[in-house]
Specification:
Keywords: Cell cycle, Cell division, DNA condensation, Mitosis, Nucleus. This protein is mostly helical and 1223 residues long. 65% of the residues lie in helices and 0% in strands. The chain has 58 helices and 2 strands.
Length: 1223
């Protein structure tokens, strides 16, 4: 018979019975030595013999069935011996040093054994043995070389440490031993050729096919351990090799047509879910549990946490197949599989890691799996997801946002598909946006906040109309906007009621205000995300294109963070491309991009220059009167028009861009020619501006005739019809054309050209001022242009300015009893006086007079007292505003002379006109930056008062100037002036050292913040200063307060009168501020709440340990200083205040109560010198603790409606992390 012939190579009749008995006795757990001759003969057998035996058994299985055992018995072949010999081959292949030939034979022997088990009667004939079966199944792992993965790990470790000099990380000994064993194993493994690997792969495929044939007929319900083993084997085989093509999942499949081992593994998992193998629910649970880690791209061992797999193409493909397989099982088994699908989804959410790539793939998996759900089941999952989004773990809240974004990409489900009316609301996209996504805008974690805001912006790009409408409802309320109210209740896990508030106009304004605050958040990623969200809202017209909203965007182009600056530049650029016709957007773009040219970061400079080049320079084309300007050209001239008018303050930044471009040779002859062709068009102002910048930045322009062009310029200037900004640009261009290496030649050119302009202006002014009918002939615009031209031209030719010119300009600002035919030798100019000339003319007269003074020190000395007087008594806003500008310009030229008048300028920080306050703030900041002005006298305190300006924009500008411009130059500035702030703002002058600088009575009254009515403003200033102290500065200022304030009152150097009591009371209140606490102590080791990393590494652990040690040391130093320096003063002051029955005692006890919160268990130790005070403090702390607990309880009760609800709510929220079933 063929079967008996196929068995001959095993030499079953020559195998000793004693050996067979020994093998069965050890239950196939170890290899028993065989006679060397027989063993060598068996080992030498080729796999062809096993293949022939396997094919013989397979071909005749249906024919023999149960009679095969009789045939074997009749032939004298012992089944027991056959199984023992097969186990000999199986165990030989398990060894790490097994050759390729041995491994193939081992796999083939295991396949034969599984085929024997498939034949009916195998259990009766004692073929089945659970240990041997498990060993055969394990061959798929043992025979295939595992060294590739271990070698990759070893290479990864060596590459990480290569090139680094660091201390070796200490390993726990078990881990070290394990790694050493692994390395030894890798070294011991034999080398397998490519041909060997192909033969082993085919043998593994044969073994898996045999297992599938076994599972089709042989039930495993009585062998639960073997069944669990099968689940593990199949899940591991999913990664065995890439699958060619798309796998097909079906209930019945031809095993021989399955091409890849992963396809066989999926079919095996499906067979295990058959009723013949036991409880289908339990089988489904195990399958879903194994596939959970495939979907999560993790590797789960028998113990410990799962480890992440590198998301390669193969891993991702296997993950996608696993998701498709789950969908197939749900489709096949319907109601039986749906509960496990819910649990699988929950586990995917709960076991997700923080890494972005894994979260993204995980969310996609959730989206694909939920698409298999009916609407009611889907609504239940969304309800669960809503609760999950409030988890205490940051990564859970982060992942819930990812899931929401994937679900929003799916078609919205119809309400009629859900039979339960309480679940209908969960089907809507509006619910996902407003109740899951938008709710995360207030998350305690900056990472979640930023991600939610980013996704909010993406929602506007979704095709779903309802999603877009939901965003509109959040930020704009109108009569046409549909309002929705969900009357159903969503319960958190079981009992927490969920409320949806109908959005009113107030709500939408609050939402927008919150978003604008997020743009200024302390965290970089939150600011970037908020910028993206704001851009989306503006692009899609969800919020108005107002200057307030756009200014927020442009301001972030000057953010301290480089990445935020780049993001803001990108946002204003995107907005301009979408709304090129909007003038407010154009202005915001200029205000954001142009100053970025002077940024300290080169990459930001480059980005700004690239934007300016693309929008402005590249759009300069030849002009033709009949030619229509395209959109890009219209935008360019609109922007240049703004630079000439509303945005003139950006001129110096714009000039720097041209300086950089000139070095890059961007100004070609054709570019200049194209630009000149626009000088007579309607937008000539912009062309002249560009031309002036080009000429000023280029050392020479050989292709332009300087003399001819200068003559043209002069002819235009002499018409006095050009706009003011064009006049300035034209004179600047004239100067550039006249520049040469010979200074005398340059000055001669300027004296000739600009001298002509000065003479023309002088003649015109005389014709108006010195004639009887001057008032009738006055053209205000023409007068202003002559004054402006005189001012800018005089700067280029000071020698051509005579006394008559100066007196004519003076006459613009003073009054006379009668008209003068000729000017007197001088005018008694003690202050400006109103005359018949319009205010605008007089304002320009101030500017012109200042420019004349810039070139003449005697004039400057003469006019400075007049300017200072005008600041005090003047009534015309524009005149006084220009006086501030001129005095600050004079400070640059004549620093020592103007230094005496700085208090007059700084007094304008409290001017009744906001425009003058803002102008003064900007000008003084520039002078302080360039160190033309020092922090002397009351200047610092004047700036502090500007911090509490009634106009929020000015207060915000002051904060920006102090923090981002001035504090960087002098980091000690705040701490140096802090104590004097206490005395100055309370107008206290009795201290021997502080508040002794000279100050006029007018200035003292204007800047006084004394009294209870200004207490809030004073403390606003104190808090601002303290927030920007370093811990070292806080520590030092505490000691300084002890020495200069508390000690002075304790020693009665300062009287404890009404003013003294106010100072002492304020000092204790300042010391009680939370901003006064050392940040090292007040911030816990996990300062970023919710920012816990899913996987800890050595760096973060070391940082945490360092922070804890630092906190401990600082706390000890602070405690020692408090006991040695502060406590004796406090005891002395307490006794003194008790004697005088002063109300300040209450503030002292309040300060102690706040301070002793950190030492509540050490009260007696600290106040060992005053037992009564120690007892009082202990009592006060206990009372405060009770009051705090009561307040918290009241708050909780008010949130839930009553105490019982609060308690239930707390219990529910605490159980949120364990309210899902286990797989």
């Amino acid at each position: 018979m063929a079967l008996i012939s196929a068995l001959q190579f095993l030499r079953l009749n020559d195998i000793p019975e004693a050996w067979v008995d020994a093998v069965w006795e050890v239950e196939f757990t170890e290899s028993i030595p065989l006679d060397k001759t027989i063993e060598e003969e068996l080992i030498a057998r080729q796999e062809k013999s096993f293949t022939a035996l396997y094919q013989c058994l397979l071909a005749n299985a249906d024919q023999y069935q149960s009679s095969v055992w009789a045939v074997l018995g009749e032939s004298g072949i012992s089944v027991k011996s056959l199984v023992a010999v097969l186990s000999f081959f199986v165990l030989a292949g398990k060894s790490k040093v097994a050759s390729g030939h041995q491994r193939v034979n081992s796999l083939c022997a295991a396949s034969v054994y599984l085929l024997l088990l498939r034949i009916p009667g195998s259990i009766g004939n004692k073929v089945f043995h659970e240990v041997l079966l498990d060993t055969c199944l394990d061959l798929t792992r043992h025979c295939w070389p595992q060294d590739s993965e271990k070698k990759r790990k070893k290479d990864l470790k060596s590459s990480q440490t290569e090139g680094k000099r660091s201390k070796p990380q200490r390993k726990d000994s078990p881990q070290m031993e394990m790694e050493e064993e692994e390395e030894e194993e890798v070294e011991e493994e034999v080398h397998l050729s490519g041909q060997d690997l192909m033969r082993i792969r085919d043998a593994v495929a044969l073994l898996v096919q045999s297992l599938l044939r076994l599972l089709q007929t042989f039930p495993l319900k009585d062998s639960p351990q073997t069944m669990i083993h099968c689940f593990q084997i199949f899940s591991n085989l999913l990664y065995f090799e890439p699958t060619i093509g798309k796998p097909v999942f079906a209930a019945e499949q031809d095993i021989t047509k399955l091409r890849s081992i992963p396809e066989m593994a999926f079919y095996g998992l499906q067979l295990l879910c058959s009723p013949k193998h036991g409880d289908q629910k339990e089988s489904l649970r195990r399958v879903f549990h194994q596939l959970l880690y495939v979907i999560l791209m993790m590797k789960k061992g028998n113990t410990g946490k799962p480890s992440l797999l590198v998301p390669s193409q193969t891993i991702l493909a296997t993950r996608d197949q696993a998701i498709q397989f789950v969908c197939h099982l749900v489709d096949e088994l319907k109601e039986l599989a749906l509960p496990f699908l819910q649990i699988l989804l929950q586990h995917i959410c709960f076991q997700m890691v923080e890494k972005n790539e894994y979260r993204s793939h995980g969310a996609q998996a959730v989206g694909m799996l939920t698409s298999q759900m009916a609407s009611e089941d889907y609504a239940c999952f969304i309800k669960w997801l809503c609760n999950f989004s409030r988890s205490s773990k940051m990564v859970h809240r982060l992942f819930s946002v990812d899931v929401v974004m994937v679900l929003l990409e799916q078609p919205e489900r119809r309400p009629e598909e859900c039979r339960d009316p309480d679940l209908v609301c969960f089907l809507m996209h509006r619910f996902l946006i407003q109740n899951l996504l938008f709710a995360r805008r207030m998350d305690e974690s900056p990472t979640v906040q930023g991600h939610a805001l980013n996704c909010l912006a993406q929602c506007l790009e979704l095709p779903s109309l309802n999603a877009t409408r939901a965003i509109h409802n959040l930020f704009c309320a109108s009569e046409n906007t549909l309002t929705h109210r969900i009357s159903h209740t969503l319960k958190t896990y079981r009992t927490l009621p969920f409320r949806t508030v109908e959005l009113s106009s107030t709500d939408t304004k609050e939402n927008l205000a919150l978003l604008l605050r997020r743009v200024k958040d302390s965290k970089t990623n939150v600011r970037k995300a908020a910028l993206q969200a704001l851009l989306g809202l503006l692009k899609h017209d969800v919020i108005p294109m107002s200057w307030e909203n756009l200014q927020t965007l442009s301001e972030r182009c000057r953010d301290p963070s480089v990445s935020v600056k780049k993001k803001a530049l990108q946002c204003v650029g995107d907005l301009l491309s979408v709304k090129p016709e909007c003038s407010v957007v154009q202005k915001a773009w200029l205000q954001g991009v142009v100053p970025a040219v002077a940024d300290s970061e080169t990459s930001v400079q480059d980005k700004a220059l690239e934007a300016l080049d693309q929008v402005l320079l590249s759009q300069v084309k030849p002009y033709s009167a009949g030619c229509h300007l395209d959109a890009g050209q219209r935008l360019m001239w609109d922007l240049l028009g703004l630079l000439c008018h509303e945005c003139q303050n950006l001129s110096r930044y714009f000039s720097k861009a041209f300086t950089i471009w000139s070095k890059q040779n961007k100004f070609t002859p054709s570019f200049i020619s194209n630009l000149i062709s626009h000088t007579e068009a309607d937008h000539a102002a912009g062309a002249w501006l560009l031309l002036s910048k080009v000429v000023s930045s280029s050392s020479r322009l050989p292709y332009v005739s300087h003399h001819l062009f200068a003559a043209d310029l002069m002819s235009w200037l002499k018409t006095f019809t050009l706009p003011l900004e064009v006049i300035s640009s034209a004179v600047e261009t004239l100067y550039q054309f006249g520049c040469s290496e010979d200074i005398k030649q340059t000055q001669a050119f300027l004296n000739q050209r600009c001298g002509e302009l000065v003479s023309a202006c002088e003649s015109y002014l005389a014709s108006i001022i010195l004639t009887d009918n001057g008032a009738q002939n006055l053209d205000e615009e023409l007068m202003v242009k002559h004054l402006h031209t005189l001012g800018v031209a005089s700067l280029q030719c000071p020698a051509k300015v005579n006394k008559r010119t100066v007196l004519l300009v003076e006459s613009v600002l003073t009054t006379h009893s009668e008209k003068l035919a000729e000017l007197p030798a001088s005018l008694p100019l003690s202050q400006f006086k109103a005359n018949w000339l319009p205010t605008r003319v007089r304002a320009h007269g101030v500017i012109t007079l200042g420019k004349l003074a810039l070139q003449n020190e005697e004039l400057a000395q003469k006019y400075l007292p007049v300017f200072a007087r005008e600041l005090e008594v003047g009534t015309e806003v524009s005149v006084r505003s220009n006086v501030v500008v001129i005095m600050c310009d004079l400070c640059v030229r004549y620093t020592n002379m103007v230094d005496h008048y700085i208090p007059n300028i700084s007094a304008c920080l409290r001017d009744k006109e906001a425009v003058i306050r803002e102008q003064t703030l900007i000008m003084l900041t520039n002078l302080l930056q360039e160190e033309f002005v020092k922090w002397k006298g009351s200047l610092f305190f004047d700036f502090m008062v500007a911090l509490v300006d009634p106009v929020p924009a000015i207060a915000s500008l002051t904060e920006y100037c102090l923090l981002h411009l001035l504090l960087k130059k002098n980091p000690e500035m705040f701490s140096q002036h802090f104590i004097e702030c206490i005395f100055h703002f309370n107008s206290y002058t009795k201290h021997k050292s502080y508040n002794k600088f000279s100050q006029s009575e007018r200035e003292r009254i204007h800047f006084s913040l004394k009294g209870q009515q200004y207490r809030e403003k004073r403390f606003q200033i104190y808090c601002f200063l303290l927030e920007h102290f370093t811990d070292a500065q806080r520590f030092n200022i505490t000691n300084k307060i002890n020495q200069t304030i508390l000690a002075c009152f304790a020693d009665e150097e300062l009287p404890l009168d009404a003013d003294g009591a106010n100072i002492l009371s304020e000092t204790f209140n300042i010391l009680s501020l939370k901003e006064f606490k050392l940040q090292t102590i007040s911030s816990s080791a996990g300062a970023a709440a919710g920012e816990e990393a899913e996987e800890e590494n050595m760096a973060t652990m070391a940082k945490a340990v360092l922070q804890a040690a630092q906190k401990k040391v600082v706390s000890q130093v602070r405690k020692k200083a408090f006991i040695e320096n502060t406590v004796p003063l406090i005891i002395s002051l307490k006794n003194l205040l008790e004697q005088k029955r002063s109300p300040v005692l209450r503030d002292l006890m309040g300060y102690l109560q706040v301070t002793m919160q950190d030492y509540r268990n050490e009260v007696k130790e600290i106040f060992s010198g005053d037992e009564q005070l120690a007892a009082e403090m202990e009592f006060a702390l206990k009372i405060a603790e009770k009051e705090r607990a009561t307040v918290e309880q009241v708050d909780n009760d008010s949130l839930a409606g009553d105490g019982k609800k609060a308690q239930v709510r707390a219990q529910c929220m605490c159980s949120s992390d364990c309210s899902f079933k286990t797989l």
